[in-house]
Amino acid sequence: MNDKDDLARRFDEHRPHLRAVAYRMLGSLSDAEDAVQEAWFKLNRSDVGGVENLGGWLTTVVGRVCLDMLRSRTTRREEPLDAGDGPVRLPDPVLSGPEGIDPEQEVLLADSVGIALMVVLETLGPAERLAFVLHDTFAVPFEEIAPLVEKTPAATRQLASRARRRVQHAAPATDTDVTRLRQVVDAFLSAARGGDFEALVSVLHPEITARSDGGTLLPSSLRRGARETASQAITFARFAKDARPVLVNGAPGVIALDPDGRLLSVMAFTVRDGLITALDILTDPERLARLDLSGILGDRDSDTP
Question: Of 69, 97, 265, 268, which sits most exposed with the smallest number of CB within 10 A?
């Protein structure tokens, strides 16, 4: 094995971890892949003979690449989700079958990276997001993060602390009992299918936030409050009619398919104390078409929830 092959082998050993870093930073599976690929190009152009911790070196490289990508988004004035009256943009969901996630997804979703957390990360500034993700999730020392954001370690610590407070406020601990979560989701679907407004309200938290991201082709929406959200029962019923159970970022959710098996929507639920606190619906045809459904659908004729 030559030096080039050995370097490729060592990089591939770190690839799942690097994808996890990039996904948390960017909220986009395709952009995360691009960031990891850029790290590979940088590795090929660098002399790493004296690098003792290649994984740590690559983590900071991916962090820098992601930071540049986030700043580029800001320059192009791409608004994140929940930007006042602007368009709603949700992070890419990670889909797996209802029976559980595979080993590669376990790495990608380590530390319970649910949609609720990803939604909050989308609202952070680029430097805040980098400091929080690298330090709080991947234990990168502030001394190594500081040069990336061109600040002192103390100032970088403040960035992470500010981001941490926002995350803890906006994405508090959620229910983790998968069986109980599925029961709540099924109760929501049953109420939506039956057009039972009061039953729908009963499974929604009074201060629920419901977001729908249709991309550039379909309208997006943001609603708050149980009764306001339940007023969309007709829309929910359309999605619920052909719903199939999946895991969305490791938590029970549903997908809806058209008669030809094309993905129409992904619904992600955030549940706390038995009530749905957030409902996130991705209906953007362009992004849905890029999601990998292999190994998820199984028997197309199986029963729906």
Answer: 97
Tell me the pLDDT tens digit for each residue of 204-257: 999 999 999 988 877 788 899 999 999 887 777 877 777 889 999 988 999 998
**Residues making up the chain, counted from first to last:** 305
123 & 265 share domain: no
296 found inside a domain = no
Count of beta carbons in the 10 Å neighbourhood of residue 58: 24
Arithmetic mean of pLDDT over the chain:
86
For 96, the token pair is: 């797996």
Residue 139 near residue 131, CB atoms below 8 Å: no
Same-domain pairing of 114 and 162: yes
Determine how β-strand 204-213 pairs with β-strand 275-282: parallel
Look up the pTM and report it: 0.86
Residue 142 lies in a domain: yes
Judge contact between 124 and 24, C-beta under 8 A: no
Same domain for 130 and 203, yes or no, is: no
Nearest in space to 243 (alpha carbons), one of 194, 190, 305, 155: 305
First to last CA, the chain: 51
CB-CB contact of 62 with 18 (8 Å): yes
Reduced to 3 states (helix: H, G, I; strand: E, B; else coil), residue 246 is strand
Distances (CA, A) of 103 to 96, 100, 110, 181, 205: 11, 10, 10, 22, 33
User: Rounded to an integer, what distance in angstroms lies between the CA atom of residue 187 and that of residue 196?
Assistant: 11
Predicted pLDDT at 50: 80
In the numeric block, which tokens belong to residue 172? Answer: 């508090």
**The domain spanning residue 200 has which CATH number?**
3.10.450.50
Alpha carbon distance 252, 137 (integer Å): 23
**According to DSSP H, which parts of the chain are helical?**
3-26, 29-44, 54-75, 103-108, 115-121, 126-132, 142-149, 153-170, 178-194, 197-202, 226-230, 233-241, 285-288
